[in-house]
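User: I've been going back and forth on whether these two constructs are worth ordering. Before I decide, could you fold them both?

Assistant: Sure. I'll take them in the order you sent them. The first construct and its C-alpha cells:
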Amino acid sequence: MEIVAIVTVLILIEYWIISVLVGMAREKAGVKAPAMQGAPEFERISRIQINTLEQLIVFLPAMWLFAFYLHAMIAAGLGVLFVIARIIYCRAYLREPSARGPGFAIGQIAQATLMLGGLVGAILTMLK
C-alpha cells in the first residue's frame, strides 16, 4: 500500500503546484481576492484548480478502495495515469480551453476504472 501512498502524495503535490500557479496568476493579473474574474490566463488556471479539486473528491477514495480490495500496484498505476492526465489537461487548458478533452477523458477512464474496481472488490469480499 506504500505505493498508493506515494501516488497520493504525487497528486497532492500536483494540486499544490496548481494552487501556487493560481496565486501567481492572480498577482500578475492584478485580480484581488475574493474576485474570481479577470484576465483570461488567471481564469483558466483558476478553473484548472477548481476542476482538479472536483476530481480529487472522487479519485482519492476510489484509488484507495481499489488498492484495498483488489490490487495496490494496479491502483497506483491508474493513479499515475490520472496524474499524467491532469498534466495533459492543464497544459491543454492553458493553451486553449476547448483542447482539454483528451486529458479529461484519460483521467475519467482511470477514475471510472478505480471506482468500479473498488465496488466490485468490495462486493466480492462481502460475498466470501
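The second construct, handled the same way:
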Amino acid sequence: MEGIIRLQNNNVEDIDVSNAIKGNGDAFCRLINNNKLSMYRIAKSILKNEYDVEDAISDTILKAYTNIVKLRRSSTFKQWVFKILINECYSTLKKKKRETVSDVFDNMKDTYEDNYKDFELARAIDSLEENQRIVTVLYYYEDMSLKDISRTLDWPEGTVKSRLSRAKERLRSLINY
C-alpha cells in the first residue's frame, strides 16, 4: 500500500515538474512547498544563522524558478533543487568569510524552528564537521541514497560513504550508544 502511495506521489510530482517547466507557477509552488522542510534542514545544517538560511532558501527558489526550463528529467527535481540550495549555502559561507562585520542579531530568537524529535541527536548532528553533517542530513532526514547524495554534492560515492561512516562513529561517541 505504501509503495502505491509513493508511486502516486512520484507521478504527481512528475506532472507538477512538467507543468512547472511549461511555466505553471502553481505547480512550481507545490513542488517547493513539498520540499520546504527538507530545504530548511539542509540549509540549517550548513548555515547556522537563521537569516542566512532564509536568504539561501529564497535565492534557491528564485534560481530554481528561473532555470527550471533547463531541468532535463522530472525525476531529478529534488536533487536539482537541493544542489542549487547547497551551492547557495556555500556561496553564503564564502561571502561571510570575507565580511568582518559582526552580526548584531545573533542573540535574537530564531524565526524558524525545526522540531527534531530527539534534541540530543539534533545537537550531536549539529556538532559534526560540516561535510559529515550535510551527508548525515541528506541520508537520514531526506532519505536520499548514497548515489543521489554523490550526484547532488558532486563527490565520489566512496567519499560520501566514508564521511557518513565517520559521522555515525562520531554520533555514537557523542550520544553514548
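Notes on the second construct follow. The helical segments are 2-21, 25-46, 50-67, 77-98, 119-126, 130-141, 146-153, 157-175. The chain has two domains: 8-105, 116-177.
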